[in-house]
Amino acid sequence: xxxxxxxxxxxxxxxxxxxxxxxxxxxxxxxxxxxxxxxxxxxxxxxxxxxxxxxxxxxxxxxxxxxxxxxxxxxxxxxxxxxxxxxxxxxxxxxxxxxxxxxxxxxxxxxxxxxxxxxxxxxxxxxxxxxxxxxxxxxxxxxxxxxxxxxxxxxxxxxxxxxxxxxxxxxxxxxxxxxxxxx
Length: 183
Prior knowledge:
The chain is an alpha/beta fold. The chain has one domain: Dihydrofolate Reductase, subunit A (3-Layer(aba) Sandwich), CATH 3.40.430.10. Helices cover 27% and strands 28% of the residues. Strands 5-4-3-6-1-7-10-9 form an eight-stranded mixed β-sheet. A two-stranded antiparallel ribbon has the order 2-8. A hairpin with a 4-residue loop joins strand 9 and strand 10. The relative contact order is 0.26.
């Protein structure tokens, strides 16, 4: 069975963007960017919510030729990686993507059962729909030294506790990665 990873840059107070939707404070330095590129190579399928897909599709397929090598590399990785996009409103998707309009929970269960590698989920809204069903196996938090005071929370409000086990910490120059396993 495939494992599902939810990884995101997060502020010290638990937000993935600020009150205006800005994520400029999450821009990775070269060390973190290379880590993400290497990690993304090992992912079989990337699951996107609509907002994240639109954000990614707005830049990564169009990385300028004069951009740093590491960005051009990720642009190539992102455009070729199989993606499943969950949206009721997008008319179509591109760049090796499949559009799913209904029943994200059932589709993710099907995808998990269909292989034994790793998938990642991107987008707080999509992840929030999967967390209560126990579908996420690992949480990778890239903790930035900033307090935002509001924005989109990494985790949704839950009816019960979500027990996790710390499996790894990794210190970078600009962030700390915390990798947790679901029980």
